[in-house]
Write a structure and sequence with these properties.
Number of strands: 14
Shape: elongated
Number of helices: 0
Radius of gyration: 44 Å
Largest sheet: 8 strands, antiparallel
Length: 229
């Protein structure tokens, strides 16, 4: 035992090179910020050219006809036999003195009793069914006359089917009109659907549309047609 500065030290209690217990693991530091974006890579090679599109059968607008007030008959002729279908779109009004006039048609100038028409029509909410068979003319639809309000025209979609086949020619026709006010004819709207055709074979070379009473179409009446080969 020895005494140093009045502190007593016991050599037996002096530990040399003794390792202490392991301390707790420290927490992770914050994640560093994202580095700058790298340069854009080079473009890849151009891909091969795709196949050519296959041919379709679109409709082509061919002609617009504007009949004048002295015309009661519209004739389209010299249709090629390569057509398979013809579509007509008409905006028509007649000088007919009645409220609604009948629009007739003839194909290839045929006046024989070969036409059949089956009709479903509406005048306002009143439905009507009728037919015309073995007739010398076909029925294409109905158009407004002079008793209807000024500026009210009928719209017609008239399609010729089986154009250049050995079967009978078939037609579909729909249309009508809607007035913006009361008509002196007592109606505010009309619509129709007609299924029919001509009981004769061969291609269509011409078609005539006309007012059944021989009255003229008013100015600004028009037809547009298109075809499909």
């Amino acid at each position: 035992m020895f005494t140093v500065n009045k502190f007593t030290v016991n050599p037996a209690n002096i530990l040399t090179n003794v390792t202490g217990a392991t301390g707790p693991t420290g927490s992770f530091g914050n994640v560093g910020s994202t580095g700058p974006t790298g340069p854009t890579g080079s473009s890849g090679p151009t891909g091969p050219t795709g196949p050519s599109p296959s041919g379709g059968t679109p409709l082509y607008s061919l002609h617009q006809y504007l009949p004048i007030s002295s015309t009661y008959s519209i004739v389209f002729n010299n249709f090629p036999s390569t057509y398979s279908e013809i579509k007509f779109r008409g905006t028509l009004r007649s000088e007919n003195a009645v409220g609604i006039a009948q629009l007739n048609y003839r194909i290839n100038g045929d006046t024989s009793s070969n036409y059949n028409s089956f009709i479903r029509s509406y005048l306002n909410a009143t439905a009507n069914s009728s037919s015309s068979t073995s007739s010398p003319t076909g029925i294409a639809g109905y158009i407004t006359g002079n008793r209807c309000e000024t500026g009210v025209y009928s719209y017609i979609e008239f399609d010729i089917l089986n154009y250049n086949t050995s079967e009978h020619t078939r037609i579909n026709s729909i249309g009508g009109f809607l007035a913006t006010g009361p008509l002196t004819a007592g109606a505010t709207g009309s619509s129709f659907l007609i299924i029919g055709g001509r009981a004769a074979n061969g291609p269509v070379t011409s078609i005539e549309f006309y007012d059944s009473n021989g009255n003229n179409f008013v100015n600004q009446s028009s037809f547009v047609y298109a075809y499909r080969r």
